[in-house]
Specification:
globular; 30% helix; N-FG_amidohydro; alpha/beta; Aminopeptidase; two-stranded antiparallel sheet; 7-stranded mixed sheet
């Protein structure tokens, strides 16, 4: 399926030493997969992509002048934020929605999706991180952008944003402090998810390599339209820029993962 590009690279000033990642930025599928047997409405839900993240990432990349890598394929096809051996890599059921195109699935089709979508995305991330390190002469500072639903099974999630992490606290603690300093939002620390996930994007590209990083989740109802996206881009851009000016956030240092040995 060479006609489908699984990722998009937004070019920027690699010398600045910052990279933005958006694993679940888009909800697209190659034509050959149709809608995986789902109604089109399913692709407007969080099960297909991270609502608001594409727009937020584009605005931040433009404001900061830094490169970004965006995943273009829907997480319903294969999830780029999972390791290759993760059983949830290709979901048969997602938040109550059965995915007919994913069940049953052959070993050959599983491998095909890895080879045509998952691996090319991660190769693109590797390429951008390597170029950033070589151009800037220092470890990149990586921000991974995601979004989450305001409710889960009718239980409200009060956090406006959340920072997820494993054990590398270097970028995490200052990001949380900056976000909380405004006093107008509730910021989760490894809530509503735990950031330690073996094989995910941050594990693979940052934890294993000792690259400073933070995964930021923004609640989807806050970035569900252009006004919300613009407001959060305005909030985050100066925080990211200030953190990027800290030389201690451009040093390689490997931390042990809570998921076990590398």
């Amino acid at each position: 399926m060479p006609d489908f590009q699984p990722y998009e690279i937004i070019e920027g000033d690699y010398d600045k030493g910052m990279v933005l990642l958006a694993d679940h930025a888009m909800n697209l599928l190659p034509q050959a997969y149709g809608n995986l047997g789902l109604p089109q409405a399913a692709f407007e839900r969080h099960i297909a992509y991270d609502i608001g993240v594409e727009g937020l990432t584009r605005k931040l990349a433009a404001s900061l002048g830094v490169p970004a890598v965006l995943g273009r394929f829907s997480r319903l096809l294969i999830d780029p934020n999972r390791g290759e051996d993760d059983p949830t890599l290709i979901m048969k059921i997602s938040d109550g929605a059965v995915v007919p195109g994913n069940h049953p699935i052959t070993d050959e089709e599983w491998e095909r999706r890895l080879e045509t979508h998952h691996r090319p995305y991660h190769n693109a991330v590797d390429t951008v991180l390597t170029r950033t390190a070589q151009t800037s002469g220092k470890a990149p500072l990586v921000f991974s952008l995601h979004s989450y639903t305001p409710f889960w099974k009718s239980v409200p999630r009060p956090w406006h944003a959340a920072v997820l992490w494993d054990t590398d606290h270097r970028a995490v603690h200052p990001l949380i402090e900056h976000l909380r300093a405004s006093g107008d939002i509730l910021v989760g620390d490894n809530e509503p998810y735990d950031g330690a996930l073996k094989g995910d994007t941050m594990y693979r590209h940052c934890m294993m390599k000792g690259i400073p990083h933070a995964l930021l989740e923004v609640r989807q109802d806050l970035i569900g339209d252009e006004a919300g996206i613009a407001a959060w881009a305005d909030r985050l851009a100066p925080i990211f820029a200030a953190m990027n000016d800290d030389p201690t956030l451009h040093e390689y240092k490997q931390f042990a993962s809570r998921t076990g040995p590398y």
